[in-house]
Task: structure prediction
Amino acid sequence: MSGTPAPHRCGQIAIVGPPNAGKSTLLNRLVGEALSIVTPMPQTTRHRILGVLQRPGVQAALVDTPGFHLPRTEMNRLMIEALDAALETADVFLLLVSAAGRRSPEERFGPPVSQLVERLRNRGKPLVLALTKVDLVRPKDRLLPLLDWASRHVQPVEQVPISPRTGDGVERLVEVLLPLLPEGPPAWAPDDLTDRPLRFLAAERIREVVTRRTREEVPHSVAVLVERWDEGPRATTIHATIVVDRPAHKRILVGRGGAMVREVGIEARAALSELLGRPAHLRLFVQLQEGWTRDPARVRELTGE
Ligand SMILES: Nc1nc2c(ncn2[C@@H]2O[C@H](COP(=O)(O)OP(=O)(O)OP(=O)(O)O)[C@@H](O)[C@H]2O)c(=O)[nH]1
Ligand SMILES: [Mg+2]
Result:
């Protein structure tokens, strides 16, 4: 065939939406690596997490963001700051809203989603809507009122039903997203996956295990600090501290005779070995820093932004 080759495209796509919509699950699926932690708990993601999707002639930096909610705590406020930072640098917005359950379109797209859509509109970048968790929607024509409502009120350039968990619809979503990216030369090396250091990913893996194993408000009170990192000849030894902000949470996390922290350690060690691709040893400590989640300086320090 003749003609000029298609220009290379390179840009950023911000993955946004309310808590628990499947944003991190989608990021991980698209980059083929568990970069961003996933739990059944809303407000799991605290940071802006970038993963690079590489296709012939295209590099898309996908930016996972904290679920949008009205800030009530200091940590919430920082999470919204992380979201705003991602919106600033994005070329395309990908809004995820769950289609699971029986809520009406008005409820589903009401606050906080409506407030998020306002924030996106003001920035005038192309907006794609993905209705997620469609594996839970039966029969499929229950999607129609949602699609109809969204096309009138959200007015995305395109909307795609997907299941981040099963992968259904995800390739079609990629086909919609990539042509919206600006033309530009490659900004990433061919094997780049993320801009986050391994230490950060390791701390997040430990926080994922803690969040999955604890209930109610405990996960929101947890921060994980990697204190030491020793690359041995055969294994990597990691010393990490789990910081909590109430005595009761420390008791839960330590557990009877240290049972909970031991179990967390076993599970997190397996996750770290997988992350590093080599054996890992983990030394875990639980530390009480009373009230840290309400103290702006300590929130900044402990969540590492
Ligand atoms: N059934 C079903 N569950 C899903 C799907 N995608 C994600 N989930 C589940 O929904 C929960 C939340 O997924 P996450 O990917 O952590 O959601 P998130 O939007 O990143 O959430 P926050 O970080 O809290 O804003 C997890 O339990 C996922 O396993 C899906 O397509 N189908
Ligand atoms: Mg998330």
